[in-house]
Amino acid sequence: MSTITTASSTSTAAATRTGARPTRPRRRRRQRHGWATAIAIVFSVVWIFPVYWMVNTAFKPRPEVMTSTPHFLPLNPTLENFIVAITQTSFLTNLQNSIIVVVSAVVFALALSLFAAAALSRFRFRGRRTIMVLILAVQMLPGTALLIPQFLMFNNLGLLNSFFGLSLAYVAAVLPFAIWTLRGFFITIPVELEEAAMMDGAGTWRILRSILFPLVVPGVISTSIFAFISAWNEYILAYTFMKEQAMYTLPIWLVSFSSPVTGTDYGGQMAASVLFALPVVVFFLIIQRHLVVGMSAGAVKG
Known about the structure:
The chain contains 14 helices and 2 strands, in the order H-H-H-H-H-H-H-H-H-H-H-H-H-E-E-H. The protein is mostly helical. The protein has 2 domains: 57 residues; 218 residues, MetI-like (MetI-like fold). The protein has a two-stranded antiparallel ribbon with strand order 1-2. It comes from Microbacterium rhizosphaerae.
């Protein structure tokens, strides 16, 4: 009887030990997951805090903004800063200019990059690799290094102080990245889909329009987000190419809140920054829904 009891206790202890072994990796995974979550929270707070402080300052009156003691919430919230920003005579004009230039740049950049990416990923022709390397090299160059050559070229062509010229400059800035991004989406599409379409008698344009283009919708949407944000936030080209104040865009309008004579209106500038960021947020929220739909459709068709 004692032998049976001893064997039973031994087996129970062994089972306990074997059952305890898997818990150690689980604990380690949980610890790693906890550390990763904590680090992600820290980075999120560091990234979100400037945006929060911008919105917080936008609702503060000027005496509260200039106080030496920071307040993490407005003591006397006001919309005066937003009213001052909106009622400026140049706001609506600069907003209209930004919309015209940015929408034109995004449409042209997407159209050109879509066909260029399709050609570089699907067709085999002499010089294809050289073109890809040159596109990558142009993308690696800093924009300020190209500012003077672009200014001289656009000046000779008579494209300065025009929406078309500025849109063309924005297209040139975002086109290399857009081509490389869309090329990656085209490469992931199985070649068998095109071969099956060719067997059914479909030509090149029909394959592009009915098969390839619908499957790269997620890439088109993600590229449009990058192009929109890059063109919307651009300041140097707009300030350099546009000579008249009536042709300025919103990034230049933000600078008008700082003056060597009157100083900087921090409340008005933060309110203007909030207004400046709203179109980007709205554009992303609208595009995000289509991005999910496009990814689902592409997965089903693929």
